[in-house]
Structures are given as structure tokens and as C-alpha cells.
Design a protein that fits this description.
The protein has 6 helices and no strands. With about 140 residues, it is mainly alpha-helical.
Length: about 140
């Protein structure tokens, strides 16, 4: 009898909420790699080239409003910019890969928050977020999503 139950369990369709999300998994994996690499570079004193690269864009320093241990404000700014770029990459992949298309509004909001914290200037981030949201809507409409 248990063999029949096991066979029935194997034949049941997997609910949609339990299916794998390869784009989300890949984005989270890249995020973990980014965090670990940045922390390691900071610990061994090699994060300065990344900080100098960000300084080339004349961005205002990150104004987090609180002291966060382990890393300087410059490193946090690099971290937040990198995390925002990873979120944007996830959005683009979700829109470009037909099998992984789903709502990206939450990821767009998350990317805007990350960039807002990194740049410390919401007067730049909010208009850029609106532009990005418009591009996402056009891209989805063009692909029939």
C-alpha cells in the first residue's frame, strides 16, 4: 500500500509556489559572492581601487545616518551600488528570459532603495526609478508580457 501512495505522490503536479526560480537563485548567489568578496577585500586592504572607481563619478558620499560596524561608509557605498546593479541585472534577466518572467515591481523598488541609500540623493533616484519603471513596462509590453 505504501508503494501506491509513493507513486501517487510522485505523479502529483508540483504547486507553482514550490517550483524553482533559477534567476532568483542566481541573483541571490551573485549577491552573496559580492558581499563576501567586498568584505574580504576590505579585510585585506584591497578595497581602495573600488572606492576610487566610484569616486570617479563624483557621487555624493553615502549618508546612512547610522554607524554600521566592520566597514567604512565608502565601502558601504560600494556595497550598495553593487547590490543595486545585481538587482537591475535580475530585472533584465527576468524580462529577457521567457520562462522566468514574473512581476519585477518589487525588485525595481528594492533597486531604487539600494541606489537611494548609496547615492544619498533621492532627488536623483526617484526620477531615475520612474524612468526605469517606464522602460520595464515598455519592455514587458513589447514582449507580450
Amino acid at each position: 500500500m505504501s508503494e501506491n501512495n509513493q507513486a501517487v505522490e510522485e505523479l502529483r503536479p508540483v504547486p507553482k509556489r514550490h517550483r524553482s526560480d533559477p534567476v532568483g537563485t542566481a541573483a541571490f548567489a551573485v549577491f552573496l559572492i559580492w558581499v563576501g568578496a567586498l568584505w574580504l577585500l576590505s579585510n585585506i586592504g584591497l578595497v581602495d581601487p573600488l572606492i576610487r572607481f566610484v569616486e570617479r563619478f563624483n557621487l555624493p558620499p553615502a549618508q546612512l545616518g547610522i554607524h554600521i560596524p566592520f566597514l567604512s561608509a565608502d565601502v558601504w557605498q560600494v556595497f550598495l551600488l553593487g547590490a543595486g546593479c545585481i538587482a537591475l541585472l535580475e530585472i533584465l534577466l527576468r524580462l529577457a528570459i521567457p520562462g522566468s518572467r514574473r512581476g519585477v515591481v518589487g525588485t525595481v523598488i528594492w533597486a531604487a532603495i539600494l541606489f537611494g541609500l548609496a547615492l544619498g540623493n533621492w532627488s536623483l533616484i526617484l526620477p531615475a526609478g520612474l524612468i526605469l519603471a517606464g522602460i520595464v513596462l515598455l519592455f514587458r509590453r513589447a514582449l507580450g508580457g
